[in-house]
Amino acid sequence: MHHQPVRRIATTALCATIILGTAAPAIAAESDPGSSSSVEALRAPVPGADALLGQVSSLGGMSSVITPVTDLLTEVLKADDGKLSAEAAQKHADAIKAAIDAAKATAPATTTTPKSATPDDAKAKKDLKGDALTALQTAVDALLKASTAGDVAGVATAATGVITALVNLLAATLLGTGLPAPTLPGLPTLPSLPALPSAATLPSTSTLPQTPTLPKAPALRS
Length: 222
Hints:
Blueprint: H1 3-31, H2 36-43, H3 49-78, H4 86-106, H5 119-125, H6 128-149, H7 152-176
C-alpha cells in the first residue's frame, strides 16, 4: 500500500513527460524567432519607411553640423577677450569643415531650371540647404579670423553672424527636405490671402457707362 502513491506519482510524471514531449516541437516552433511565421513578421516593411528614413537622415545631418559649430561658439565666447590659440582654432576649423562637406555630399543636388521658367520658379528650384551650408562656412571663417586676431568687437559681430547662419541652415533644412509641418500649439500661422470679391459685389452691367449712339448719316440723293 505504501508503494501505490509512489507508483501513481511516477505514472503521472511519465504521462506528463510524454505529453510535453509531443507538444514541445509545436511550442518551440511558435516561440522560435527563426520560424517562418516570425521571419515573415520581422520582414514586414514599415509603411513609408524610405521617406521617414530620409527625414531622419536630414535631422541627423543637422546635428552633425550644429554640434561642432556650437562647440566653437562656446569656447570662443568663454575665452578671455574671445581669443583662441592657433592650434585650438585649427582644430575647430577642421571639425566644422568636415561636417559641412559631409552635409553637402548628402544634400540633394541642385535642380537646373529651364530658361522659360519664371523668377518664382527659379527661386523654388534653388538649393537652399547647400547655400545655407556655404554661408555658414563663410561665417565660421570670419569668427575664427577675429578670434585668433584677438579682435573682441569682431568676435561679437562674427559670432552673431554664425548664429544667424545656423538658424538659416535649420530653416533651409526644414523647408527643403520634406519634413512634416510643425504642429506645436501657439505657433503663428501664415497670413491668409485676401478674399476675392464675390459676384454680388461686382458691378452689374446696368451700372456700366453706355456706349453713345452715333447720328445716322444723311441719305444720299439720287
